[in-house]
Write the structure tokens for this entry.
Amino acid sequence: MTDTPERITFFGRLRNNFLTGLIICAPLAITIWLTFAFIDWADSWVTPYIPQRYNPQYYFDITIPGLGLLIAVVFITVIGFLGKNLIGRSVVNFGESILHRTPLVRTLYKSLKQIFETVLKDQSTSFKKVGMIEFPGPGSWAMVFISTEAQGEIAARLNEDGEEMLAVFLPPTPVPTAGFLLFVPKSKVVMLDMTPEDAAKLLISGGLIAPAWTPKTISE
């Protein structure tokens, strides 16, 4: 006796069509909303500081979305260009010397600068690789982002037996904005082929969105 396929009712088809449409439209709508929200946020910070004679909105009496963001990008780019030459570097060093003499502010500035230099530097290798470690115990595996090799005092104290140590970041699910910094022997880290972006999607989705993978590296 063969099982007859279950017939989908009219309302069932409507529900399936609605869910399909929701999967298509929701990410698109949220992306557009976040984009315009970011543009409005940037405009609200920058536009008030633009002199009226240089503001096109003053002459045309219309709001130009993204004008503040565009000016901010141009301004930051110009600052970066000037900061690379001798005169600009001298001005930057002078400003930093004042900040370094200011209590409380110097600690905050040094920390923020170190974070941005590490993340945005072209030659930085931070968070370009993903791996797996046994955590919290044998038989249980957790995904980690590879930060860098252990350096300085940590490397000197942990590498006494010649085992190279890696600094890894263990993020939680589903919001990987905070986590644990762990120093793990390199031999205990299973390197993955997936990109940090794919790993972040996997973490945020709670394992539901797994990136496609072809096991070509295993045969190599």
User: Anything to note?
Assistant: The two ends are 49 Å apart (CA to CA). The first helix runs from residue 10 to 46.
